[in-house]
Amino acid sequence: MDQYALYYDLLYANRDVRREADFIESIIRKFSHVKVKKILDVGCGTGMHSIELGKRGYNVIGIDISEEMVKKAREKARGMENVSFLVGDAANTVFKDKFDAAIAMYGVASYFIEDEALMKFLNSIRQNIVEGGLFIFDTWNIFGVNDKRVYYEMPSPEFRKSGNMLAIKESTWTIDLMNQLADVDISWSIVDLSRGGVDVFSHRIRLRLFTPREIKHIMRDCGFSLCEIYPDYNLVPFSEDSPEMVIVARAD
Ligand SMILES: C[S@@+](CC[C@H](N)C(=O)[O-])C[C@H]1O[C@@H](n2cnc3c(N)ncnc32)[C@H](O)[C@@H]1O
Asked: Most buried pick, 102, 108, 117, 212, via CB within 10 A?
């Protein structure tokens, strides 16, 4: 198993998945035009949100391109009849039955750098949602990233701990404003505090940075209306200096 999938839950141990699920439910109450029973978790990773939403009574299918992520998700959801997982490319998968809502949490949309790939991804999600259903996802706001450029370009360690395991993250961004891209070099040191062993690995990801207005147009071109942009998974107003954008769009 690759180290990213192996340690994924530790690497993101700082997240408050229950709060994020509370946010999703509030957004559904606020903006959905349909009653939500069935949710598609796009790029579900190890199934954090699928499982939390499943516990709240929704029927959830998580799809991820990584077999290893899906394997972990299935292990974690063992015994849950209303939650299932599928290995597949979300940009190429159209389900027979549509969903009432879809989510793509924690940077999934940022994987689609090229316009064609992004449109294919969004069009496929649109096909999987009923009219009036929501698509909730996060991505990067170029203005906010540029505003905090010094912080992003200076490596500074972050720590995440779960049980006896400690993860130390160091990331450095190289920002290309003209092309609206950022190359992020991330290195992780995983320390087993009980045994003292250290596992070190690194990866590079390329992210696409958007303007809020661009998002509105792209969503419209793919059959969605933009409902709202939030700065994170809290119901607070978005401002241009927020590096992240949580986008709520409704299928037309
Ligand atoms: C940063 S993880 C986020 C996982 C999860 N949504 C969460 O919040 O923990 C991004 C995930 O997107 C998946 N992914 C990337 N491209 C994909 C694609 N074309 N189809 C489905 N999943 C994809 C990756 O395998 C990875 O598990």
From this structure: 102
